Amino acid sequence: MERYDLVVVGAGINGLGVAKTYHQLNSDHSLLILDGASSLGGVWAKERLYPSLKTNNQWGTFEFPDFPMDTKTFGLKARQHIPGSVMHDYLAKYAERFDILDKIRYRTKVLVAEHQDGVEGGWVLTTASAEDEEAKIFARKLIVATGLTSDPFFPDFAGQEVYGAPIFHAKDLRHYADDPVKCPTVFGGTKSAWDAVYSYASRGIKVNWVIRKSGHGPAWMSPPFVTPLKKWLEKLVNTRLLTWFSPCIWGGDASDGYSTIRRFLHETAIGRFITNTFWSIIANDVLTLNNYDGHPETKKLKPWYPAMFCGTSFSILNYPTDFFDLVRNGTVKVHIADIAHLSPHTVHLSDGTQLESDAICCSTGWMHVPPMKFLPEGIDKEIGLPHKAEDEEGLFKAETVQKADDEIFARFPRLRTQPEANKNLHSLLDAPGLSTKEELTPYTPMTPFTLYHFIAPPSARFLQTRDLAFSGMVGNFSTMLVTHIQGIWIHAFFSNKLPLTKSLPEIQYESVLYARFGKWRYPAGHGARQPDFVFDAVPYLDLLLRDLKLETRRKKENQGLGWISEVTQPYGPEDYRDLLAEWVEKQQ
Predict the structure, then answer these.
(1) Where does the sequence pass through the membrane (predicted)?
(2) Residue 532 confidence (pLDDT) above 70
(3) What does CATH list as the number for 1-418+425-553?
(4) Burial class (CB within 10 angstroms; exposed 0-12, middle 13-18, buried 19+) of 416
(5) Is residue 269 very low, low, confident or very high in pLDDT (cuts 50, 70, 90)?
(6) How many CA atoms lie less than 13 Å away from 41 in the CB half-sphere?
(7) Of 68, 120, 155, 213, which one's alpha carbon is 20 to 30 angstroms from that of 297?
(8) Residue 10: which residues within 8 A CB-CB, separation 6 or more?
(9) What percentage of residues in the chain have a pLDDT greater than 70?
(10) Where are the alpha helices (DSSP H) in 232-290?
(11) Are 205 and 179 in contact (CB under 8 A)?
(12) CA 18 to CA 472: how far, in whole Å?
């Protein structure tokens, strides 16, 4: 059996980021990175890159703090969304620069991770190669960095056996993007559906776009620059002053230290009026810029839920031409209906419409549990992974959940008034023409991810062995910053350099509180099952930095303008450039 000091599962942004930091700080330890794909990158792996794929973020906000994406090397310029091929190249160069490229083993899936008894713990991993050859690997420490977009959820359609044309998930668009189709159907309203629609329509291919009448509707899509002041969106959400307007359970005393202003904005009537006005300005600006009501077809793409409650389902129009022109000129036809069934080269909708179709691209979401089984049986509850909610005996006891809800509503009364749900809303699998062979789906009643600070299992066993951590189980616009700091946090946790000042009951309650908060804060996003936030990334980074005893207010010395720059200047990779060196110096 092979043995390693650390095994990282996943070679995407999160896996590479945490592996690099661990290797940098523990160069004498053995390291192995496992990934089921044939190349590194996760979302940006070669096999997932289709020609029009780009980052939502513009150049300058989507890079690791200690590895700038310089213009000379990568050929980018200001206000440019990063092409997928450049993103892959950047990650490959990052892995090469920090000597982890040769530590990656491709086309290898982890099927089972079994925890070992004893004070030091450790994991025996059962892996499968592309040829289905199984092997055992022992990992003294294990990091799961599979992220939230690795295992696609793919329903079965009634009649698909006679449809006679390709049906595939948006994850696999690369393999079908160049097929000579004439009338493709795109199913779903998420950002990946918008991307698939644009990939076809921008080449003059007429697209039928089906958005479920029984779903959450079209995703919020924002221009890159918003508000009457035309602020860069990715920077706007990382500006302290504006993060105060977002209800955030880990804000205030526990992280960013601005508890007084947060209490005013969220616990007083006048503060809530100001806060509601802020969100109204953001939403109305996006609605006005996109001019949804200017055409009967674009009106169908108008979001159904308030922007404040959407989390990362609030995305960015990163297309080189006007997306809505393709809708207005008839290249894209939008249908608000469910798919009833399929017949030969035909999609039948619940409103009676029949669509000629020679391909179906499904943007139907992702499985929300790691793509591996954890043993011994029942350990998923101890780890804090999503599991079936019935007869809950773990962290999510009824009294604990009620206590968490009471605290959330006391601190943020605004969240008591939840957005009005679609009156036709039901599970994707409740539609007459859809089913699945899988036991678990995104619609199975499950507990959410319940990890301490979204990283570590909050149980006595794992707080003792410190041999398991998760990276990238959060959704936000600040992926690279989060991964960079999570990497340092995990290293400190694994090496017993992260003092846990709270008692075990306090750690467990806080984990439930943060997990439960997502249900009320982002009901139109994914908050009920996983950490999903946009305006709350900087307070989250502060939370991790406070754990590490590192400086959170990083603008004073850099800008020389004191607290004014601290609260008005956006945070970006440049503000965390020397963070790892600061950590090393502190330890010395």
Answers:
(1) none
(2) yes
(3) 3.50.50.60
(4) exposed
(5) very high
(6) 20
(7) 155
(8) 33, 34, 35, 42, 144, 145, 146, 147, 150, 472
(9) 95
(10) 233-236, 240-243, 259-267, 269-290
(11) no
(12) 10
Rounded CA-CA distance 196/205 in Å is 12
Strand partners, 358: none
SS3 470: strand
Question: What is the rounded distance in angstroms from the CA atom of residue 337 to the CA atom of residue 214?
Answer: 8
- With H, G, I as helix, E, B as strand and everything else as coil, classify residue 552: coil
> Which amino acid, residue 387?
H
Contacts of 469 (CB under 8 A, 6+ apart): 18, 141, 142, 143, 144, 455, 456, 490, 493, 494
pLDDT of 483 higher than 80: yes
The angle, 0 to 180 degrees and rounded to 10, between the axes of the packed helices 479-494 and 537-547 is 20
Tokens linked to 167: 């049906």
Measured between alpha carbons, how far is residue 217 from residues 93, 191, 237, 302, 424 in Å?
39, 11, 24, 8, 11
184-223, pLDDT tens digit by residue?
999 999 999 999 999 999 999 999 999 999 999 999 999 9
Segment holding 54, helix H or strand E = strand 54-58
- Residue 294 reports pLDDT greater than 80: yes
Bridge-partner residues for 356, per DSSP?
346
- The pLDDT tens digits of the residues spanning 146-173 come to 988 888 888 899 999 999 999 999 999 9
d(CA 106, CA 96): 16
Nearest to 162 by CA among 431, 365, 345, 433: 345
Which pLDDT score, from 0 to 100, does residue 17 have? Answer: 98
Length of the chain counted residue by residue: 588
CA 134, CA 534: separation in Å to the nearest integer?
Answer: 40
Environment class of 31 (CB within 10 Å of its CB; exposed 0-12, middle 13-18, buried 19+): buried
Task: Return the C-alpha torsion angle 152, 420, 247, 443, nearest 10.
Answer: -20
Distance CA 432, CA 79 (A): 45
